[in-house]
Sequence to fold (248 residues):
Amino acid sequence: MMMDETAESKLIDDYIMNRLNKDQRKSFEVRLDQDPALQEALQIRQIMIEQVKTIGNLQLKDKILNIQKNVEGKEKHIAKRRNIRYFISIAAAMVVLFIGFQWFNTTQSVSNLYANNYEAYDQLRFGNRSTQEDKTLLDVGALYQKGNYAEMLKAIESLAPNEKEDDRIILASAICHMELEHYKKAIGILKQASVQNEFFYQDQAKWYLALNYLKLDQIEKSNKLLQDLSKTSNFYSKKAKDLLEDIK
Fold:
């Protein structure tokens, strides 16, 4: 009696993974010797598993097409309809896996690019730009410099309105949100700062905004900012060029 495709797929997997007992394995191999369609199905499944192990192999498409040609070229008496249905179901599964792994690789790649290029800005000095600074502002700045990012965000609320508008506080608060993985909040702060020519840390705002977009997989927005940075003379010009190359 002909086995349904789901059961046959499981049987093939069990054979490949050595989950069959001695009698079941022998029975399968006897049938395998006599059934070209089963041979093709086994070959497809083995390639599928191989590709899963070697995630993202670009030869996957060629291998599928070659097997398809072999299936189509078999003798007329082979149950072609069964072969084709089985091939389509396996190929569809392989495509889903391939797309999934491509997404996984892309996600991992973007995450790695962010991690490799992000570091908290350490050039903020809260005691050097004015001798009349309020002690509260200095205390808040000290929290940033010590890496107490959550505490700094809370402390900002105690600042006077004009102190909250200090360029160092604005940039520091965005970095705090990034450190705490509040990327959308960081974007809200940096997006506004990056378009203000009078903002003292405008290049820094563009750089960190580009990284936030990169982290959230908004590549087009990230690229635009990086291109702007790469075309002007600034501290981030080379970094932006290198990151653009890596994104490609």
